[in-house]
């Protein structure tokens, strides 16, 4: 059995936009919120895992220690070159 969640002090504009989105999909506001909250929980869990990986990578010198000197623009350039077959 599910639990009940109450959100206090939600702007009426936000509630109306959510209600309109639910109506557009032909579902109840509760169904829309259930779906979106489940997706948010999944996203937050994934972000925690990524943060954990990042911390481990930093501790181990990064995923590619030999490339630590490259900045993000250089990495993007290399990816594009590889993708374009140069």
Describe this structure in words.
The structure is a single chain. Helices cover 67% and strands 0% of the residues. The longest helix is centred in the middle third of the chain and has 31 residues, at 29-59. The model has no long low-confidence stretch (mean pLDDT 82). It is built from 3 helices and no strands. The protein is an all-alpha fold. Helix 1 (12-25) packs across helix 2 (29-59). The protein has helices at residues 12-25, 29-59, 72-84. The termini are far apart. It has one domain (12-84).
What is this structure's SSE topology?
Elements (H helix, E strand, L loop, with lengths): L11 H14 L3 H31 L12 H13 L2
Helix pairs in contact: 1-2
Q: Briefly, what is this?
A:
By secondary structure, the protein is mainly alpha-helical. Helices cover 67% and strands 0% of the residues.
> Which oligomeric form is depicted?
single chain
Number of strands: 0
Distance between the termini: 57 Å
Helix percentage: 55-70%
Helix run count: 3
Q: How many structurally independent domains? A: 1
Mean pLDDT: 82
| Unreliable residue runs | none
Cα shape:
elongated
**Order of H and E elements:** HHH
Task: Kindly estimate the percentage of residues that lie in beta strands according to DSSP.
Answer: under 5%
Structural class category: mainly alpha
The main β sheet shows up as:
none
Rg on CA atoms, Å: 22 Å
